[in-house]
Amino acid sequence: MAYLNANIPPIYCKIKKEYLYDLKEHYGESEECVVFGITSITGRAILFNIMLPNGACFWRLPIAAFFQKSHDRADVPNMQTHELELWNCFSYYPSVHCFDWLDGLKGKFLGLDKKFYHGEYLFTIDWGHPENNILNTEHSEIPQEHKCAHILALANGNYAAQPNNRILWHVNSYTTDNSWPDYKVQTTVWDAENNDMVTEDTDKMFYEMEEIKDNKRTYTKYKEYADDMSFENDGKKND
CA 231 to CA 239: how far, in whole Å? Predict the structure, then answer.
């Protein structure tokens, strides 16, 4: 897992030129670029790092700064960052992966305007916490708070970063159910070892697993307690 910066599959696209001038000039213009990395800062939008045809690199631009190379800028809807990306980064430690099952799949996400936007999968960004010796003040590993970000090339020319609970994918031979899911948020922390089993206390490679036996003594009547404690009175039980 990377800290702060991470590689991504290169995206040859165009950048809205005003983002190269601090949003102060060159509105309506664009030029080609290659997006090759991301920067992940807790509480900020995913930031993208690029190279331009003149050899210059430009760092930390939002997803709204880019559109697809095959589109003319005038034809691409001017969507804002919060419309394209629902959540900020969940930690300084991003993971970038391209899942084979999703690679090249098309799908649709439900936007804040309650409209569906269609697009094609590119790769996924996820977040975690690196080690126990670093104080964890983030939300990346809290089940009900965690989100990943699937990067999509939208049919309208924009790019988007959306979580699982906003996207429905389309697989010709599999996704035949057209209903909108009503699943519940996952709140359980799954733990395979937090149970009543213990390993056999030997050096055997193929050891046995046993359930912990509860040897605690419980009593429903005082006389049962007195009889059990009779060893303290020379073995004589009280009537």
Answer: 14
CA atoms within 13 A on the CB side of 100: 0
pLDDT digits (tens, 9 = 90+) for 3-42: 999 999 999 999 999 999 999 999 999 999 999 999 999 9
Tokens of 209: 């697993």
Other C-beta atoms within 10 Å of 83: how many?
17
**Cα–Cα distance between 6 and 141 in angstroms, integer?**
19
Give the other-Cβ count within 10 Å of 235's Cβ: 7
Return the percent helix, strand and coil in the chain, to nearest 5: 10, 30, 55
Question: Are 139 and 126 within 8 A, CB to CB?
Answer: no
Distance CA 131, CA 231 (A): 52
As given in the structure block, the two tokens for residue 223 are: 């006389």
Residue type, 125: I
The dihedrals phi and psi of 153, each to the nearest 5 degrees, come to -95, 110
Q: In terms of C-beta density within 10 A (0-12 exposed, 13-18 middle, 19 or more buried), how is residue 59 classed?
A: exposed
